[in-house]
Amino acid sequence: MGSVRPSTDISLRLMHSVCPAHHKPITTLRVAAGRVVTASEDHTLKIFKLEDSCCLFTLRGHQAGVTTAYMDQSMTLASGGRDGIIFLWDALTGSKVNHMRGHRSSILSLTCTPNYVVSAGIDDKTCIWDRQTALLLYSIPQVKHCTCITELRIHFTCHLPVHQNHSEIC
Questions:
Q1: Second label for 121, Cα 20 to 30 Å away, from 2, 74, 79, 163?
Q2: Domain segments of the chain: what residues?
Q3: Among candidate residues 147, 102, 104, 146, the one with its CA nearest the CA of residue 123
Q4: How far apart are CA 132 and CA 62, in angstroms?
C-alpha cells in the first residue's frame, strides 16, 4: 500500500494590485466605517475604501512624519505628528477641519470623544482639547523619570483619560 504525501505547493492568486500607498514607511493605520487610513513618515495620511482599496484622499498638512491617527464611525479623523501638531479632518471630504498646537515635539498617541481630543507627547504632557474650538483645556505633566505614555484610552462614563503604559505607572 502506498502512502499519501501531503502537498506542500501553495497556489496564490493576486486579486488586484494598487500603487504604493506612501513614499516612506507607514507609521500607523486605522480602520473604521469601511475606510482604511494610513499615516506615514512622508508627512501625509491616505484614506482608502476598504472594499476595493481605492485611494480617496491624500491629506497634507503635517511638517514632519505622522506618528498617530484616530478615526471613528462618524468619519472623524485626527492625526498627530513629529511636528507636535494635531489635525482634525473630515474623512468624508478629505478637508482639514482644525489644528491644535501645544506639544513641543512628537505626539505619541491621541484619541477623541464627541467633545474632546486627548493627546500624549514625547514632551511628557497629556493634553485635553476642546474638539469644537481646538482650545487647550488642560495640560497634565507626567511625573519625571516615568516611561512615556504610548497609548490613551477614554473611559466614557467619567470622561477622564486613562493612561496605559507598557511598564509600571509612576
A1: 74
A2: 26-164
A3: 104
A4: 20
